[in-house]
Amino acid sequence: MTKKPKIKKPGTVRKIIKSSIPEEPEKAEIDVEGADHLYREIRVENTLQDEEGKKVKLKQGAQVEVTIEADGKDTTPDDQDEEAKVFDLLTPEPSNLSLGHAETHPDRRRQFYRSKHR
Known about the structure:
This protein has two domains: 69 residues, no CATH class; 37 residues, no CATH class. 19% of the residues lie in helices and 29% in strands. The protein contains two helices and six strands; from the N terminus they run ββββββαα. It has a four-stranded antiparallel sheet, with no helix packed on it. Strands 4-5 form a two-stranded antiparallel ribbon.
């Protein structure tokens, strides 16, 4: 069995949201560390199973681990590092161009270059 590419992020259960409809399960709102500010919270059904198969629920304040996993066929190689090496080799240091802070920081030079050459 092939291992799937994945990433794990720590999170915290910020609140438990009771449903106003009795048939719908309650939700756990989880803050995911390292996510963009506007997309930090996710809400999932607050239903888990322990190792014995019994249903359990998360508590407010619980520390959790959020795992994102995909099939290999649904991913692409991260060639950002390779692109950065090629860019640094092909792009001269800025001389009389006024790029603001981009002049002094390689990542900003790359961003400036990409924004002007797309």
